Amino acid sequence: MKFFKPTNKLKELLLLQHIEMNPDTTQKEIAKIIDGAPSMVNVYINKLEDANYLKREYKSAKIVYYRITEEGKRMKDQLQNDYDKELLELYQLCRKNL
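The structure assignment produced for this chain is given below.
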């Protein structure tokens, strides 16, 4: 897409939504969802974990499950609300201009 590049907030929203539905996901799968590199996913996960929005559970050295905390669920809901508001504003602007 040329005009609608994902922002950091959108990537955080997509990441939290995906992890909530797929706690056994991999960083490679998340990278596809947020349209980023797996190494960048680790940066997002670290940031969200530091903010207490998600936690990692290590099943083994190579297998990690991600769990969204209650704070993470509230953050995800807030991000979703903000996204919906902006989308509605964009729709109204387009409708007005058409």
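Interim note for the steering committee: The chain has four helices and two strands. Residues 46 and 98 are 43 Å apart (CA to CA).
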